[in-house]
Amino acid sequence: MTAAAHPAPHPESDAVVSLDGVTVRHGEVLALEDVSLEIAAGSVDALVGMNGAGKSTLFAAIMGRVPLSSGTVRVFGGPPSVARKAGRVAFMPQGDSVDRAFPLSVREVVTMGRYGRLGAMRRARASDRDAVQDALARVQLSDLAERPIGALSGGQRTRALLARALAQDAELLLLDEPFAGVDQRSEALIAGLLTQLARDGRSVVVSTHDLTTLPDRADRVILLARRLITVDKPEVALAPESLARAFQFPREERS
Ligand SMILES: Nc1ncnc2c1ncn2[C@@H]1O[C@H](COP(=O)(O)OP(=O)(O)OP(=O)(O)O)[C@@H](O)[C@H]1O
């Protein structure tokens, strides 16, 4: 994507997210161990690791949704939950997390991206409706805006969830497997949008266990296997020896 403009590692002054020695346990399972990492403005980072490597847990830590066993997480220089509640962090779940029977239209789902800004009782203003319209156009779903989200294809559903994140106008976007189960058109569109977001100065972190879509086009690859294996430019991080370490880690380890 914009690799030349964002060499790794990022200087501390740029950090949108800083993790320092973060360890997270889910009961007996050690999900993250002593992870220290910084994420800069204006970059696309691919968060790569096998199933169970801790990618979702890392996102949860950045959103302040999981207690830390040790370490600290700062987002925009403060506690993660403060940044999330202020709408500065958008999380995009996997497209298949949407229940087919979910009764909302695509437009209503995208409008949910504005809720943090609307407040509980405020009605959508023209600026909110414009932001929703713009987000729908950017993911090329304007024509399907009134359709129930459950009636969309996998790629279209993912694009609708991305539109919700775009409508939120967050500075930090965390995307969970946005390329899983999407068609080629959606894949190209999503990859192009991520590049544009980074050029606008936003930070984008994309989790994937698939090496064929994003990682070699990202600014950096964060290789995770419960511990941080490496964070570097794709050509370095995706070298066979780092990949072997990331994809062969013992899965049975417990705290
Ligand atoms: N709520 C939970 N309770 C118990 N164990 C959990 C919980 N959430 C995650 N884990 C465990 O923590 C580890 C890390 O899980 P996590 O979901 O963060 O990995 P992941 O890289 O996102 O995996 P995937 O690619 O399958 O989504 C795994 O061993 C998982 O089984």
Automatic annotation (TrEMBL):
<keyword id="KW-0813">Transport</keyword>
<dbReference type="InterPro" id="IPR050153">
    <property type="entry name" value="Metal_Ion_Import_ABC"/>
</dbReference>
<dbReference type="InterPro" id="IPR003593">
    <property type="entry name" value="AAA+_ATPase"/>
</dbReference>
<dbReference type="InterPro" id="IPR003439">
    <property type="entry name" value="ABC_transporter-like_ATP-bd"/>
</dbReference>
<dbReference type="GO" id="GO:0005524">
    <property type="term" value="F:ATP binding"/>
</dbReference>
<dbReference type="InterPro" id="IPR017871">
    <property type="entry name" value="ABC_transporter-like_CS"/>
</dbReference>
<dbReference type="GO" id="GO:0016887">
    <property type="term" value="F:ATP hydrolysis activity"/>
</dbReference>
<keyword id="KW-0547">Nucleotide-binding</keyword>
<dbReference type="Pfam" id="PF00005">
    <property type="entry name" value="ABC_tran"/>
</dbReference>
<feature type="domain" description="ABC transporter">
    <location>
        <begin position="17"/>
        <end position="251"/>
    </location>
</feature>
<comment type="similarity">
    <text>Belongs to the ABC transporter superfamily.</text>
</comment>
<dbReference type="InterPro" id="IPR027417">
    <property type="entry name" value="P-loop_NTPase"/>
</dbReference>
<keyword id="KW-0067">ATP-binding</keyword>
<protein>
    <submittedName>
        <fullName>Metal ABC transporter ATP-binding protein</fullName>
    </submittedName>
</protein>
